[in-house]
Amino acid sequence: MRPTVHDLAQSAGVSLATVDRVLNNRPGVKASTRSRVEEAIARIGFVRDVAAANLAKGRIYPLTFVVPSGDNSFMVSLRHQIEEAKTRSIAERTEIVMVEVPAFDAEALVAALRALRNDPPAGVAVVAVDTEEVRRELLALKASGVAIVTLVSDLEGFDRDHFAGVDNLAAGRTAGSLMARFLAGKTGRIGVIAGSMLVRDHQDRLIGFRERLAEINPSLVILPAEECHDDPHRVDAAARRLLAEAEGLVGIYNLGAGNRGLIAALSLMPSGPRPVAIAHELTDHTRAALEGGVIDVILNQDAGHEVRAAIRVMKAKSDGTPVIAAQERIRIDIFLKDNLP
Amino acid sequence: MRPTVHDLAQSAGVSLATVDRVLNNRPGVKASTRSRVEEAIARIGFVRDVAAANLAKGRIYPLTFVVPSGDNSFMVSLRHQIEEAKTRSIAERTEIVMVEVPAFDAEALVAALRALRNDPPAGVAVVAVDTEEVRRELLALKASGVAIVTLVSDLEGFDRDHFAGVDNLAAGRTAGSLMARFLAGKTGRIGVIAGSMLVRDHQDRLIGFRERLAEINPSLVILPAEECHDDPHRVDAAARRLLAEAEGLVGIYNLGAGNRGLIAALSLMPSGPRPVAIAHELTDHTRAALEGGVIDVILNQDAGHEVRAAIRVMKAKSDGTPVIAAQERIRIDIFLKDNLP
DNA sequence: CTGTTAGCGCTTTCAA
DNA sequence: TTGAAAGCGCTAACAG
Predict the structure, then answer these.
(1) Is B174–A51 a contact, with Cβ atoms under 8 angstroms apart?
(2) CA B23 to C1' D9, whole Å
């Protein structure tokens, strides 16, 4: 039988209450008594039963997700996954609140975070815009004991508890590799469509893409990125322009959202060889485009995994429990039409 | 406050014991009383607290993994992950036993499974060889209430509770796609190395690979698969033969284990264009080969994920709790040197 | 067939 | 600074 608090109390020659005080390092224990208990813990190999502790405490984990509003497919799916997680709240002892703020709006984000100060949750998961103010606000929360998880987009050099998202530089490099390999030495122009170069993820993807493409096949000409703000209409227009104007457009990479526009433009092309098309995020639209051969590769981050990982990490951090690092790492999924889930 | 058994008992006008009986559908409750309680459950929205139940029951989940012995890197890593899981046993209330049986040895497997009959665990996860006897043995365990999870390799049409592994037909198709796309219309010969054509996984991979390659570029000639029984030395020899003999060997696919042999053979090639090389399972060796450009693509199944999924599913099945399907699905990971974890 | 009562391992008043 | 005792939500004897 694994030792319990009773065994521990007996073994240390103190009462249950004292054991509990030491275990939860609460004040009011003489240093000598404390060390006597700690010694006993080591001696009998006591490991505290978190489930029992949570039961006794009636503990639930109040967790807040702060995410962008708007109808970008990926964010829609992220929010959907948060709703799904709410479904599991009773079983997982969580109480999840989702706060939506306008995308790319630092002030709104700051306000939302500040509002959490009054009644701080156990953890905050946030799709962060990177400004000084945002960092300050998150730091303040962290200082008051809130576990901070950055979601999807990380804050460079910021001491969050965890990042639940992918390495976008690596994602860009992966796109570059696949583009170059699929073109196998061919030369020509590559069109790039981005959301906004003000967002870190997109910057990183572009940098990685260019780097890798240049490494493998420097003869390819990468056209300047078209910023379409994740808007399908603008993506559509930009893609048409690229396809019509660029002589020898052999590849096209949409590193942002708005794939519906890309798919529409590609689908309208006259038959004949299509450029290699690579985009991000698996949605109903991109899945259909992959299956139909309109898009060749989809790079994906699993929103469900991100949300579940964020929750597990916030809970773990909030009670000092270890996390399984490999489990919480978010992969850069590469989907061809052949390995769709 | 969420309703408890007390509320339920009161609301149904019965005692705690009766509530408990219907909750765990134990016998000895009049049908009318039972329905009265069930009604109350629905009325007040009672959801049972599994953690508290487990505490009261002192419940632990005895789980048995039956896996092949031998030094194939993937199986080594699978066993390592099982050991890792043991590490978490106290927290997860599991008691994990790992039984090793010689690879591909149906009789030994049957014997190992039969031995579980005396004291059946809550769940069995097994890397199964597909024979009638094995199926019969697993069915018998299932009939006595044991949750059955097939690991890595599934049993076609068998009613297991879950399969924790990848779709190998899809994996083969993915390999075929990548091979064809990387070769971009080039013609030539493709060498294939397999472990054993008696194993379902390998059959499936080969079928998928051929199919897909033929669809995309029928001019490629796929050489007959060399069966090397996952042995690095034999793989090495086979690869050398292929590289030396085959005029215009443009690609090589190892769908089995023994990648050390493949890597050795490729590394010894005179400089000049190498064939596109695709293999399975990310290990220290294949990682280094990817990084060094010796291998182009590694398809992977995450052994850690498989083990964790198997455990979660066995626990869930064993107490009738739902599983999060998307979380337990094992992906076909595609690794290039750019997106290594 | 149904109910009473004493726990599971830990926390939390309330006294001392 | 310490301890005794009641209780978290559920289960399990043991009586009736």
Answers:
(1) no
(2) 13
Q: What is the pLDDT of residue A218?
A: 96
Query: For the domain with range A58-165+303-330, which CATH number is right: 3.30.70.360, 2.40.30.30, 3.40.50.2300, 3.40.50.10770?
Result: 3.40.50.2300
- Residue A288 C-alpha, separation from nearest chain B C-alpha, in angstroms: 17
Nearest Cα residue to B127 out of B205, B208, B199? B199
A168 pLDDT above the threshold of 80: yes
**Residue contacts between A and B (CB atoms, under 8 Å):** 101
pLDDT at B161 (0 to 100): 97
Q: Phi and psi dihedrals of B68, rounded to 5? A: -70, 145
- Out of A52, A178, A305, the one facing B55 most closely (by C-beta) is A52
The tokens of B126 are what?
Answer: 């097994």
Superfamily of domain covering B168-300 = Response regulator (3.40.50.2300)
Taken in order A20, A23, A24, A26, the sign of the CA dihedral is: positive
List the domain boundaries for chain A: 5-48, 58-165+303-330, 168-300
Question: pLDDT digits over B141-169, tens only?
Answer: 999 999 999 999 999 999 999 999 999 99
Which residue has its C-alpha nearest to nucleotide D8's C1'?
A: A56
CA of A64 to C1' of D6 (A): 34
* C chain positions with any atom within 7 Å of a protein CB: 1-14
Residue B10's identity, in one-letter code, is Q
Q: Which residue is nearest to nucleotide D9 (CA to C1')?
A: B52
Locate the chain B residue with the closest alpha carbon to A309: B327
Contacts of A194 (CB under 8 A, 6+ apart): A202, A205, A206, A225, A226, A227, A228, A254, A255, A256
What one-letter code names the amino acid at B89?
A: S
How confident is the model over B213-238, as pLDDT tens digits? 999 999 999 999 999 999 999 999 99
Q: Protein A54 CA to nucleic acid D2 C1', in Å?
A: 24
Q: What is the pTM of this model?
A: 0.94
CB B36 within 8 A of CB B52: no
Minimum CA–CA partner of B337 in chain A:
A174
Distance CA A277, CA A269 (A): 13
Instruction: Tell me, yes or no, if A56 comes closer than 8 A to chain B by beta carbon.
Output: no
Topology adopted by domain A5-48: 434 Repressor (Amino-terminal Domain) (1.10.260)
Question: What does the pLDDT look like over B18-59, one tens digit per residue?
Answer: 999 999 989 889 999 999 999 999 999 999 999 999 999 999
**Rounded to whole angstroms, what are the CA distances from A219 to A32, A184, A186, A215, B336?**
73, 12, 8, 10, 22
Residues of A in contact with B329 (CB under 8 A): 341
Give the pLDDT confidence of B261-292 residue by residue, as tens digits: 999 999 998 877 899 999 999 999 999 999 99
Around Cβ B97, how many Cβ atoms within 10 Å?
A: 14
